[in-house]
Amino acid sequence: MQDFGAAFVEAFALIVNFDAQLAEIIGLSLRVTLSAVVIACVIGLPLGALLAVTRFPGRGLVVAVISGLMGLPPVVVGLGVYLLLSSAGPLGVLQLLYTPTAMIIAQAILVTPIVAALTRQVIDDLHIEYDELLRSLGSSRMETVATLLWDARYSLLTAALAGLGRAFAEVGAVMIVGGNINHVTRVMTTAIALETSKGALALALGLGIILVCLSVLINAGLMGLRRTAERMAYA
Amino acid sequence: MPEVLAMDFAEEIETEPAIVLEDLVFARGGRRLVDRLSMTLGPAGVTALMGPNGAGKSLTLRLIAGLIEPDRGQVRFAGGDPAPQEMALVFQKPVLLRRSVRANLDHALKTYGVPRRERAGRLAELLALGQLESLAERPARVLSGGEQQRVAMVRALVAGPRYLLLDEPTVSLDPQATAAIEALVSRAVADGARVILVTHDRGQAQRLADDIRFLHKGRLVEAASAARFFRAPQSAEARAYLAGELLL
Ligand SMILES: Nc1ncnc2c1ncn2[C@@H]1O[C@H](COP(=O)(O)OP(=O)(O)OP(=O)(O)O)[C@@H](O)[C@H]1O
Ligand SMILES: [Mg+2]
User: Fold this and answer.
1) Cα of B56 to ligand 1 centre, how many Å?
2) How far apart are CA A153 and CA B103, in angstroms?
3) Residues of A whose CB is below 8 A from B108
4) Mind listing the pLDDT tens digit for each residue in A62-73?
5) What is the separation of C-alpha A210 from the centre of its chain, rounded to a whole number of angstroms?
6) CB–CB of A234 and B139 under 8 A?
7) Total structural domains in chain A?
8) Of A12, A119, B97, B182, which one is least surrounded by beta carbons within 10 A?
C-alpha cells in the first residue's frame, strides 16, 4: 500500500510538470479518438437518419444488426482490421498496420454503429413530429434528413458522446492494430496496460487520472452545451 | 348516404370546380372514419368544414393535402395535382421547427426553392404581414400557443398558395389575433386562393365562409351557403350541433 501512495505522489508530479512523454501520449490519444469519432459521425449521423425516415423491406433487420453492433468486442474489431491490413491481407499494400491511421480505422468501426443506432432513435421521434409538415412542404428525402439532423443537433451530441466514451476507454482494438509502439502508436489506454504490467505504477496511475479527468471534462462540456440549448428551447 | 342531404350549390354551378372530392373512404380498424365523402369546391372563396369532434374534418383536410391516401375514391384538382408551394396546410396543432421564427419561415421558402437572394426581402414582408417582427429571432417553440399559430399561418402564406387548408387556425387566439388571422385569410381569398377552413366558431364561419360543409361521423350531412346554413339548417345533426346539443 505504501507503493500505492508513492505512485500517487509521483503521478501528480508527472501531471504538474507536464511530462513530455505524457504529453505525447495524451496528444496521440486525443488525435486518434477524436478522428475516429468524427469519421463515425460523418457516416453514422446520415445513416441513422436515413434509417429513421425510409421504409424498405428488411429495414427492421438492418436496424437490429446495427443495434447489435453497438456491443462489438474491441478485440474482435482489432483482429478484423489486423487481418485486413496485415501484409498478407487485402489492404496490406497500404502498409497501415501499426500506424495511428490503423487505430483510427479500428475505432471508427467500433463507434459508427453506436452513433448510427442512437441517431436513428433520436431522429425517429423527431420525424414522427415533423413528417406531415415536411411532406406538405414537398421536402425531398435528403432535405428531410438534413432538417431532422439540424433540428436534433443538440440531442445528437449524446450519440457522439457515447461514441467518444467508447473510443476513449477502449484498449483491445488499438493494442492489436497499433502495437503500442513508443512514440508512434502509444496511447493512454495501451500505455496504462503496459506500465502496469511493468510495475511502473506512477506513470500508469498518472495516465489513468488524466484519462478519467479528460473524459469527465469532455462529457461535462458537451452536456453543458446541450442543456444551454435546451434552455433556449432549440432542443 | 344519409337521408337528409341538403344541397345548395347556387354559386358553384356557374364556375369550374377547383377541387372535387369523389366518394372518399378512409377506414382504420374496420371503421370508416371518412365515409363516401363527395364535394365540389369552386376556385376562390372560403368553405367552412364544420361538425362535432371526431367528425373527420382533420382527416378530410389530410386527404385533400395528399398526406394520407384514401382507401377508395379520389381528390381531383383543376389543372392536375398542385405543386407543394401551391397548397399549404395549417395543422390543428402547429408544427414548428426547433429554430427561430425567422428560420422557420426561411426553411419553408428554401424548401419551396426560393433562391437565397430573394429570401431576405420576402422574409421581411412576411414578418410584417404576421406582425411577427418583434418575435423574429425568438425560438419558435417558446412562443405562446397563439403566437405559434400566427407563425404557422404566416408560414402557410409564404408562397401565396392557391389552396389554403386551415385546421382551426384561431382556436387559441385572442380576439385581436383572431381578427388578424381572419384578415390574412380574406386577403388570400382576394388574391384568388381557395380556402378550406375547419372551425367550430360559428361567428368566424359567418364572417369568412361562403358556404358550409357539415360532417358527422365521417359523412357529409349538409352542404349549404353560409347564410342558409345558419338561418335554416336542414339536417337534424346540424340543428343539434348549432343548438349546442351533444351529438353522438
Ligand atoms: N390514423 C388514425 N387511425 C385511427 N383512427 C384515427 C386516425 N386518425 C383519426 N382517427 C379517428 O378518426 C376520427 C376523425 O378524426 P379527425 O381528426 O378527422 O376529427 P375532427 O373532425 O378533426 O375532430 P376535432 O374537431 O376534434 O378536431 C376520430 O374519431 C379519430 O379518433
Ligand atoms: Mg380536427
Assistant:
1) 5
2) 15
3) 137
4) 999 999 999 999
5) 17
6) yes
7) 1
8) A12
